[in-house]
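Sequence in, structure out. Go.
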Amino acid sequence: MKQILLPVLFLVMMTGISTGQENQVSSPQIVMETSKGEIVLVLYPDKAPLTVKNFINYVDAGFYNGTIFHRVIPGFMLQGGGFSQNMQKKTTMKPVKNEADNGLKNDRGTIAMARTQDPHSASSQFFINTVDNAFLNYKGQTTAGWGYAVFGKVIKGMEVVDAISKVETGTHQKYRDVPKTAVVIIKVRQTKP
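Output:
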């Protein structure tokens, strides 16, 4: 039996026959420490490689540390990643291509990229869906159909997301739905799964 197994194992190694483990893309995990508690996310580089790389670049640069959830709409989503605590917009890197056509849906607990009317304008801002938001999903490569690129989901701390979604909001300067008491993103970091 041993004589048969060794040549077969050698043949598998030499010919590159897949055992199913060689090319798996690891799923990074992100810890987001907020003034309301901790949110843990898993990201999907196999589905949204450019978006995940973009997000991790911001995380590794410490860009999100000290920012706020600047837009909170109950029964919809929480948006953050672009403003300091005094509502100053932060300077961002160049936009990333929209990857909303990756098959992922804007379901409760998912994280997606915020953007302007331009489908390919997402940079640092993200949002966490607090309900299923099917109308944000990809429908086609048109301005109205591109949708919003989901690139991960909350795996721990949905109770924190829900608590943030209930904060009192108002208008600040020209911005609506701004929490009256800042919900601070204290620190964002990668962690091992």
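Check: Helices lie at 2-15, 49-60, 158-165. The two ends are 38 Å apart (CA to CA).
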